[in-house]
Design brief:
Blueprint lengths: L9 H4 L9 E2 L2 H10 L3 E6 L4 H11 L2 H10 L1 E6 L4 H15 L6 E5 L5 E5 L13 H14 L1 H19 L11 H12 L16 H14 L2 H16 L13 E2 L7 E2 L2 E2 H18 L2 H18 L9 E2 L2 E2 L2 E2 L7 H8 L1 H11 L25 H18 L7 E2 L2 E2 H18 L2 H17 L8 E5 L2 E5 L2 H18 L2 H18 L32 H16 L2 H13 L1 H6 L5 H11 L2
Parallel strand pairs: 1-3, 2-3
Antiparallel strand pairs: 2-4, 4-5, 6-7, 8-9, 9-12, 10-11, 13-14, 14-15
Helix pairs in contact: 4-6, 9-10, 9-11, 9-23, 11-12, 11-16, 13-14, 14-15, 16-17, 16-18, 17-18, 18-19, 18-20, 20-21, 20-23
């Protein structure tokens, strides 16, 4: 075992038996690199990441790769969910240096952490146009030995240029027509046939749907509502939804939503629960309520701990194969369900002998008109689902990452509280109460500081902006649902703490990490939305909610200052900032 054997992170523990002499992020690794004048090899991922697993099997478990890494580098493993600050910093460099990022993110840096090479997945050996890790490590070492001074100088220049280009927004008021502009931008990339936005791979993008629902309702824009509604219908019917055990997978590899990346994340399902509940609230259509309830059924069954906190994710793989837990062959379905019931199930769920995923089938309802399924067939399909669910449960299950993250729990607390209010379901509200009480009891220290991560009975790492902002959102949704002043008081103290710890009083906006956290080579501000809302976006939503409830203008003023600090960027690229626009739209168009 290497040093990672003493870590808490499930991702780091997955690499504890590697022959690579991994270090966790910390002074020991940096001191060794400086003493031996070696570059750092920083590899960032998370425990349910498919390509992280692939690279682990191909390279990090390999003696030949380990020999090069151990001889020429100081290798560091980072869990992006445990240390989102480190991940954020190097993702900014990835965007600046190669134009994109992803996981695993592999960074070669000077001994003080300044990057001079960045990439994502590398195979062990060079193939096609993709350089292999063995060749890469040898080339980097040769360059380090022959041009070390130039590399160090260039790395410092890269850091300074990134600070100029990426850390400060262009200030300004948002345009008066920005909301229409955002809607038209979504229309431009909208897939009229399959729903969703853009081409493959296709992500659910809850912020796009949330925005269109809000915009359509407030402006009586039927086109916006139709884009949102078709997307919600097509996503559910597709294979990106688990029609046997419920919940949404991470994304679809095709434009039709047929074949997913089979990973299931807490945050995806929390955010999608919000948008399906919003669609029901606006339209009254029972379909949206049904899907939302299936999402929560999955989350509570598979991710809720006994104490009330929600775990992070389920892996895409089981037994080393992606999707193996979730797919079925045609013959398997017939054998499990019997010929008559099996054929009914296969007809609706597109189960064929050829299959749609490596010779097996990922069940889906693409091409089925849900309104034309006969009532007696609905009963048969539910019976078949229950049988398949019980059968599937006897398979070897995917790994579950049992980190409890404050930020993602804030999202599911808000999602459940909202659903409880919309559906008049007190059970959801009580689940949100239990989860909120768990976070408050276990992840706030004696000085009132929020912590970010909880594993095996211990909370650690000072909270990041997303922890404060997402939990603020969740607590305010919970207050609106149960009217318990305890949650309003907690929201006020949390918001005030967030302002004190994260605000940039000079240029506006909130920093990603606080004065309490480790200082990194950059101190970024998180404005652009990704798979989760940006910290500044969700903080703005929370601050404006708090202003509406308390009428304390300091919350409104700070929200306006946040928006202004990045205003011209929002005007130029509105789709990158849709959660901010959701907050502004609600505030400006009651």
């Amino acid at each position: 075992m290497n040093r990672l054997a003493f870590e808490k992170s499930p991702y780091l523990l997955q690499h504890k038996d590697n022959p690579v002499d991994w270090y966790p992020w910390g002074k020991e690794a940096f001191n060794k690199a400086k003493e031996e004048n070696k570059p750092l090899f920083i590899s960032i991922g998370y425990s349910t990441c498919h390509w992280c697993h692939v690279m682990n099997r191909e390279s990090f478990q390999d003696e030949e790769v380990a020999e090069l890494l151990n001889r020429y580098f100081v290798p560091i493993k980072v869990d992006r969910e445990e240390r989102p600050d480190i991940d954020k910093v190097y993702m900014i460099f990835a965007e600046a240096m190669i134009g994109f990022g992803g996981w695993p993110l592999n960074v070669v840096a000077t001994p003080d952490g300044k990057p001079f090479f960045i990439g994502t997945y590398f195979p062990k050996r060079t193939r096609d146009r993709m350089i292999g890790l063995l060749d890469l490590l040898n080339r980097v070492n040769n360059l380090w030995e022959s041009k070390r001074n130039e590399i160090v100088t260039e790395a410092s220049e890269i850091v300074e240029e990134v600070k100029k280009q990426y850390l400060t927004g262009r200030k300004g008021k948002i345009d008066s027509d920005i909301f229409m502009t955002a809607k038209e931008e979504l229309k431009r990339i909208y897939d009229r046939k399959n729903g969703g936005f853009g081409f493959k791979p296709k992500f659910p993008m809850p912020q796009y749907i949330w925005y269109l629902l809000e915009y359509g309702a407030r402006n009586d824009d039927k086109e916006a509502l139709e884009m949102a509604e078709l997307t919600l219908e097509k996503m559910y019917k597709g294979g990106i939804f688990d029609h046997i055990g419920y919940g949404f997978y991470r994304y679809s590899v095709d434009e039709k939503w047929l074949i997913p990346h089979f990973e299931k994340m807490l945050y995806d399902n929390a955010l999608l629960g919000i948008v399906y509940a919003k669609a029901y609230n606006l339209t009254g259509k029972g379909f949206y309520k049904d899907v939302a309830e299936k999402i929560y059924s999955f989350a509570v069954r598979e991710l809720l701990s006994q104490d009330g906190g929600f775990y992070s994710a389920l892996d895409a793989e089981s037994e080393g194969t992606e999707g193996k837990y979730y797919v079925f062959t045609y013959d398997e379905i017939i054998e499990i369900l019997g010929k008559y019931l099996g054929e009914v199930y296969c007809k609706y769920y597109n189960i064929t002998k050829k299959g749609n995923f490596s010779g097996a089938n990922n069940p889906n309802l693409i091409g089925v008109n849900l309104e034309e399924i006969f009532s007696d067939d609905i009963e048969k399909l539910e019976k078949a689902r229950e049988i398949l669910f019980e059968y599937r449960g006897r398979r070897i299950k995917p790994h579950r990452d049992e980190k409890i993250l404050t930020s993602w729990n804030g999202l599911i607390i808000g999602s459940l509280a909202n659903a409880g209010r919309v559906f008049r379901n007190d059970d959801y509200i009580q689940m949100a109460v239990k989860s909120a009480d768990f976070i408050v009891s276990n992840l706030i220290d004696s000085n009132g500081n929020l912590m970010s991560t909880f594993i095996d009975g211990k909370a650690y790492n000072f909270g990041f902006l997303e922890d404060y902002a997402f939990l603020l959102y969740g607590l305010l949704e919970l207050y609106e649902s149960c009217k318990d002043n305890k949650y309003l008081d907690l929201s006020i103290s949390l918001a005030d703490k967030m302002i004190n710890l994260f605000e940039d009083k000079d240029d506006g906006g909130l920093y990603f990490y606080s004065d309490l956290s480790e200082e990194l080579i950059l101190r970024p501000k998180d404005f652009r939305d990704g798979a989760t809302p940006s910290g500044n976006s969700m903080a703005t939503i929370g601050l404006l909610k708090l202003f509406k409830i308390t009428q304390d203008v300091k919350y409104r003023d700070l929200a306006e200052k946040i928006i202004y600090s990045w205003g011209q960027d929002i005007n130029d690229y509105p789709l990158d900032y849709l959660y901010l626009l959701i907050a502004a739209h609600e505030f400006l168009t009651p």
